[in-house]
Amino acid sequence: MSEYTAKDFKKGQPRWCPGCGDHFFLASLHKAMAEIGIAPSETAVISGIGCSSRLPYYMNTYAMQTIHGRAAAIATGCKVANPGLSVWQVSGDGDGMAIGGNHFIHAIRRNIDINILLLNNRIYGLTKGQYSPTSPRGFVSKSSPYGTVEDPFRPAELCFGARGRFFARCVATDAAGTVEVLKAAASHKGAAVCEILQHCVIFNDNAYDNVYKKEGRAKNSIYLQHGKPMLFGENNEYGLMQEGFGLKVVKLGENGITEKDILVHDAHCMDNTLQLKLALMEGPDFPVALGVIRDVDAPTYNDAVHAQIEEISEKKKYHNFEELLMTNDIWEVK
């Protein structure tokens, strides 16, 4: 049992709009950190700019709100300089995918041992309702009054394209599912990307209507668990099977299909082909994939850097500045 409770990680009074998905997620993060059991004094939460980036103010841990899009860079430096810290980066879809997009993919490519929390509401909320890099084509907003003419980024696609080893997804209103995803991210050694689907009640209050309520999730999502058959539906009456190079939804009992015919989820498979297909499923023909989609071990950047420093230091004749000076010709002036 953890010696901590959610209260140990709480601080201040959250200042978000009533009903904002940030409230739901913050409560789950407090609970998850308590269950993870790492002390608040050994935890750092770092954000950029945006509504969700206010979250560090409400954490009784080391915390820092940085500048727009640079949370991953600061989190990287924090982890490399303090490898014993549990580091959590919080970004919105604008902060993380637009100005912070380059930092996002390179933190994943380097496999920094940080937890990247992407709170995706498909809108710029803090700056009052402009479309974001994850807004769907045709989305009408203050900055696209006739609908966007762009295709959106899909966070999973960027993560996998950057050779990401961990990707998970949850819905902010699903407390139990969110806590489990956060705990899995914390136990993963390396860059762990968690996409959190949430609503902005002011500017995009129907972004994920099909899965935002419990009833909708039962019908329109699949909660993936490693080693378990890919079943979903209110009574697990549907499942996923392979069809050619793709996937198809089937109903158990029809055409002689049984649970034995259903694909089994392998989050640890090095080949990410099927994992990516699962992450990119979208309606109306397919369920939204939730849970841990990919979780593969690999060397981390921070471990490699410190190992390299130790290796090179052992070969050097000097180990500090004074010794460095003594390696050259010296003389004494009287």
TrEMBL record:
Keyword set includes tRNA processing: no
Single biological process term from Gene Ontology: cellular respiration
Ranges where the Thiamine pyrophosphate enzyme TPP-binding domain occurs: 49-196
Keyword DNA damage belongs to the record: no
Keywords: Oxidoreductase
Gene Ontology molecular-function annotations: oxidoreductase activity, acting on the aldehyde or oxo group of donors, iron-sulfur protein as acceptor; thiamine pyrophosphate binding
The name this protein goes by in its record: 2-oxoglutarate ferredoxin oxidoreductase subunit beta
Organism: Bacteroides fluxus YIT 12057
